[in-house]
Amino acid sequence: MDESRLDITKPLYDQKTFYGRFMHFLFVTDPRTIFTSDEELYAAKDLIEKYKLKQEPSGTTREQIIYAKKLYESSFHPDNGDLQNVFGRMSFQVPGGMIITGAMLQFYKTTPAIIFWQFVNQSFNALVNYTNRNANSPLTTTQMGIAYVSATTSALVASLGSKSFLAKRASPFFLRYVPFIAVAAANMVNIPLMRQNELLKGIQVEDENENPVGRSRVAAGAGITQVVLSRIAMAAPGMLLMPVIMERLEKFKTFRRMHILHAPFQTMMVGCFLIFMVPTACGLFPQRAALSTECVKKFEPELYQEMEEKTKGKVPEVVYFNKGL
After folding, report:
1. How many C-beta atoms lie closer than 10 Å to residue 89's C-beta?
2. What's the predicted TM-score (pTM) here?
3. Residue 142, exposed/middle/buried by CB under 10 A (0-12, 13-18, 19+)?
4. What is the enclosing helix (H) or strand (E) of 288?
5. Contact indicator for 224, 189 with CB cutoff of 8 Å
6. What does R_g of the chain's alpha carbons equal in angstroms?
7. Which contacts of 312-317 are long-range, i.e. CB under 8 A and separated by 24 or more positions?
8. Residue 32 CA to its chain's centroid (Å)
9. Eight-state DSSP code of residue 13
10. Which of 127, 165, 198, 216 has its CB 3.0 to 4.6 Å from that of 220, i.e. a possible disulfide?
11. Which candidate, 149, 145, 130, places its Cα nearest to that of 195?
């Protein structure tokens, strides 16, 4: 075996540690990759496929392979290999998230502004969730429509309800947290609904050698829960700390006078948070998640029986699945 060759199918960093997962997602969510042309992206995919077969052009360097791997993993879906919509890629989370979150934090005082920016945010979230879904469980147009409307409605109910509640019972400062309440509530609705087929039909689970052993609804629920928590964690630092920062800065007359710069300032600050929080949140849980077969035996006895038949009684202690992003 040639030790100098990369195992192109595996991450460059150890995924058993948080640091390794953080570095991996820092690698694949690099926002600079969104400016790469489709032609260059497909060329990277072609090089990766040739490298797997040991048919890459002579003279290809390790650095070229690593860069091609970065482009491929940041832009193509891991399940079906399709080129993802640029606005739905995780590498677009920093520029897209900073603009929308900055606007939500700045324009939170009036009902029309709340409605508009929650609509924009949920449209963006729906696109991201659809783009990063488990591609083995496709949704119908009706299901996508229901998920989108439900998430947008939940965000509006949470934002307008919390605004009304806090306006009567708390200081104006706490109104700055209305956008975060809406984002957290919407994520709890949007992601499960966008991935409802996984909950209904289960997602593919594999043994340690990546051999399929069945489809599990419990695995789907675990994966979706982890993604919901990750998305909330991704938004939390910027949306929780910026109100404190703005409240302090607005005590200075000079800063208050430069009102026109408040929105750009919040947007840039949120971007600084997201540069670190996108890979941090994505790396909170392993991408290839594990599930104990004892849990499967307890909650999905029919799947466990199917696994026993497929493995001739040698059921592995743990099965694995792609949790999605």
Report:
1. 25
2. 0.82
3. exposed
4. strand 288-292
5. no
6. 22
7. 316/207, 316/208, 316/213, 317/292, 317/293
8. 18
9. S
10. 198
11. 130
